[in-house]
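Extended Data, panel c. Modelled sequence:
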Amino acid sequence: MKKQVHRLLEGGLIVSCQALPDEPLFSSFIMSRMAYAAMEGGAAGIRANSVSDIREIKNAVNLPVIGIIKQKYEGYEVVITPTIKEVAALVQTGVEIIALDCTQRPRPRARNQVEFLREIRIQFPEQLFMADCSNYEEGMFAASMGIDFIGTTLSGYTQYTRNVRLPDLELIRKLSENSGKPVIAEGGIKTPEQLKDTFRAGAWAAVVGSAITRPKEITRDFISGAGCRIREMAEYKQKGETE
């Protein structure tokens, strides 16, 4: 199964189909249709958030899925699959790859990162894991701990990488050359040309999310780029109240 997942994802585009509770498309059914549309468009895999979304998506498509659970714990910045509890829930979905925050930030319910990564390897020896990293040191550390795929997902999203220009091609290049693991480029890929740039930098596969599956953000990018007038939501609300 691991060889098949590698074969299906290598050199391909993974489409992130996610919507949070405060977003217009928040619905497991809608995410499953997004995933189906991505599959028809030629996507090699899907990245998805939450047990309910993953189950709906796996019923709709026959692509490898990178699963995460975004869970906030008070006092901690780590959100992507932060504890063993979330890892165990994802394993139960049969998801092919589980992605988790592998930044240097403190993780809830874990004494340290080394112990956490060792524990998931012991408890789930057959599961494939992806490390969501923000810099070179984190990626190399995750590789040394036996994580199967190294992602650049969190470059630009930690306090110590906020000024990085995305997509982080230099990070992709260095990790591809030195980690000994397949590197999945993710973060800030907004155009086909930028996607090509990540592969030229050595990416093994790449994830694109907002530029494909978040129409609110896409609409705002078009309006901002063209200098169009933004119609305020208050106008819509007022219209609805008077009808």
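The beta strands are 13-17, 45-49, 65-68, 97-101, 128-132, 149-151, 183-186, 205-208. This feature is highlighted in the accompanying rendering.
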